[in-house]
Amino acid sequence: MKKHWESYLGMGWSLEKTNQRHLAIKAFKHSISMKKYWKSYRSLGKALYSINEYQSAINAFNNSLALQEHWSSYQELGKSLIKTEQYQRAVDALNKSLALRKDARTYRLLGSALERLGEKEKANHALQNYYRLNKVIGNIIIDPMSGESSGINATRELIKNITKTLSSNLFSFYPSFYAGER
């Protein structure tokens, strides 16, 4: 049976899913030794990032991008650059990712990098886009008067958590806990 680079790529993905990251890294490297493919490099970078090998991950993402520009490779590169405190390079990579695809997670990472650069206004704008695009929390509308909206039960604890999250990201949110007559 002939060994094929795609088999090693798939094996790497399976090993990564079962948290066998060191074996996954070996599989991705073997795949790359047979064929230089952008997804193999991106997968290698993600596995390296997961074991805190940030500079090696950056190299893998750059190799991936040299073969094909893809929004997720730029996003992962930006995330790795943040970990190595290369904030301006992270901003550049994340903006390239956003030019290819608008993504909530990329905006959150961009906001983090901009905040570390001291660019609070730009960071706030990025985080506003994160909340706008986030499918989980971006468009939840809660009526604190009724306690429910669109099947979402808005308990006092949920409203407190939303307030805390928004406040930690420099948003002002002052809910009313008035529930009316019972």
In words, what does this structure look like?
This protein has helices at residues 5-17, 21-34, 38-50, 54-67, 71-83, 87-100, 104-116, 120-133, 156-168, and strands spanning 148-149, 152-153. By secondary structure, the protein is mainly alpha-helical. Strands 1-2 form a two-stranded antiparallel sheet. Strand 1 (148-149) and strand 2 form a beta hairpin. The protein starts with a helix and ends in a 14-residue tail after the last helix.
SSE blueprint and pairings:
Layout: H1 5-17, H2 21-34, H3 38-50, H4 54-67, H5 71-83, H6 87-100, H7 104-116, H8 120-133, E1 148-149, E2 152-153, H9 156-168
Antiparallel strand pairs: 1-2
Helix pairs in contact: 1-2, 1-3, 2-3, 3-4, 3-5, 4-5, 5-6, 5-7, 6-7, 7-8
Number of discrete helical segments: 9
Largest sheet at a glance? 2 strands, antiparallel
Shape: elongated
Radius of gyration: 21 Å
The chain-level structural class is mainly alpha
Assess the beta-strand content as a share of residues: under 5%
Q: Order of strands across the widest beta sheet?
A: 1-2
Instruction: Report the end-to-end length measured between terminal Cα atoms.
Output: 73 Å
The average pLDDT is 85
Write the element-wise H/E pattern from the N-terminal end onward: HHHHHHHHEEH
